[in-house]
Every structure is written in structure tokens, then in C-alpha cells.
Write a structure and sequence with these properties.
CATH topology of the largest domain: Rossmann fold
Helix content: 40-55%
CATH architecture of the largest domain: 3-Layer(aba) Sandwich
CATH superfamily of the largest domain: ABC-type transport auxiliary lipoprotein component
Order of helices and strands: HEEHHEHHHEEEHH
Number of domains: 2
CATH class of the largest domain: Alpha Beta
Oligomer: single chain
Structural class: alpha/beta
Strand content: 15-25%
Number of helices: 8
Radius of gyration: 23 Å
Length: 222
């Protein structure tokens, strides 16, 4: 009976693993089937408390997608065209039909991003900086979701000095830690985190990332 139970357990694990693998393949096949050549990046929706987060995040997206092998429409030109079309607010842009946005530029697909968190929280002698983002690419003709991902990156500066073990050394170490935490709070490390989030979201393929596009500079090796 124990052997039978063990076999059933192993079969269940294999079945679940196979289902998860097939689901991942299905997501990849949907993107590959659509085979987008150009991606329109629309203004970012900002759900964080930092009013500059959307513009900063938007500035980090062109290069990773272009290096991935896709034509990316110029960010500033896109914003101007959308504003002229009555879509000055990013929430309005995200609620508009994807096909309408794609038709304005002749884009194959549209990338939507929401900044869910973009903040630096000070705690005792340390500051934790967090960037949390949701990504979604939709088909420019069918409005179907071709790919989506969520990424959260956290940075916490550390002072590696031990202080030498003496009271004076420990006090000096505490002062240094407080100074490092204060500097991070005053000038949070958002941009490196945003770049890391984009790399994690787009580049992990096969997996959660996106396939290489038709304009990839070299033949990718998988």
C-alpha cells in the first residue's frame, strides 16, 4: 500500500508539473503566433505616491525592448500624438481599445505598464527602496493579452564595517549606517531598480520573459 501511495503521489507531481509546463508553453506560443515586429509603449499608469515615477519608468523601456529585437516608437512622439487625440491622461490611454492605439501608429502590439510601488521607507538605521511593476503586452489587432508579468525589486544599502568591536568603533559604525540610510532616503536608488526590473521581466526567456524579435542584433542562442 505504501508503494502504491508513493507511486500515486509521484504521478500527481508529474501531472501538475506537466500542466504548469504546458501552460507556460501556451503563453509563449500565443506571443510567437502573433509574431509582433513593433511595440508601442504607451504612458505609464502611476499607482504609487511618487508623482515622478511614471515619467522615470517610461524613460527606461526603449533600450531593453529595442535590444530584444523590436522596433519601438519614440516615446515623446507617442505622447504628443496621444495628447492630440484627446488621450493626455495615462488612465484614459490604458482604458482605450488596444486596436485604436495601435492603429494610430501602425503598431503590431502595445505595452502597458503600471507602477504599483515606487517608494523609500526609512526604518531604524536603514532605508528600504522598493519598485513594483506590472507589465502587459496586447495584440494590436485582436486586443488579446500576448504576455504579462509582475516584478518587484528591493534595495537596502548595507554598511559592511564592523566598527572594530570597541565602543568608539561601534558608535562610528552606527553613524555611518545612519548616514547611508539618510542618503538613500534623500536620493532613492529607483533607476537601477527599474532597469533591473525590466531585465527580469523581459529577458528571462524561455520562461517568463519575451522571445527575441525580428531585429535582434545577433542570432540568439537558447
Amino acid at each position: 500500500m505504501k508503494r502504491i501511495s508513493l507511486l500515486l503521489f509521484l504521478l500527481t507531481l508529474l501531472t501538475l508539473s506537466g500542466c504548469a509546463h504546458r501552460a507556460e508553453l501556451n503563453k509563449q506560443e500565443k506571443f510567437l503566433s502573433a509574431s509582433p515586429r513593433s511595440i508601442l509603449i504607451v504612458p505609464v499608469v502611476n499607482d504609487s505616491v511618487d508623482i515622478t515615477a511614471a515619467d522615470y519608468m517610461l524613460s527606461t523601456l526603449t533600450i531593453p525592448l529595442a535590444e530584444r529585437g523590436y522596433y519601438v516608437f519614440p516615446i515623446n512622439a507617442v505622447k504628443r500624438v496621444l495628447e492630440d487625440d484627446g488621450l493626455a491622461d495615462s488612465s484614459l490611454v490604458h482604458s482605450a481599445p488596444t486596436s485604436k492605439l495601435a492603429n494610430l501608429f501602425g503598431a503590431d502590439a502595445v505595452l502597458y505598464i503600471v507602477v504599483e510601488q515606487w517608494d523609500a521607507k526609512y526604518m531604524f538605521l536603514t532605508t528600504t527602496t522598493t519598485v513594483a511593476l506590472s507589465y502587459q503586452i496586447r495584440d494590436g489587432k485582436t486586443n488579446d493579452v500576448l504576455w504579462e508579468n509582475k516584478v518587484k525589486m528591493v534595495y537596502q544599502p548595507n554598511d559592511s564595517g564592523s566598527g572594530g568591536g570597541t565602543p568608539a568603533g561601534l558608535l562610528a559604525s552606527l553613524i555611518v549606517k545612519a548616514a547611508v540610510a539618510a542618503m538613500e532616503k534623500a536620493a532613492p536608488n529607483y533607476m537601477p531598480l527599474a532597469h533591473q526590473a525590466n531585465a527580469k521581466a523581459f529577458l528571462h526567456y524561455p520562461g517568463e520573459g519575451i522571445p527575441f524579435g525580428p531585429y535582434a542584433p545577433v542570432e540568439p542562442k537558447n
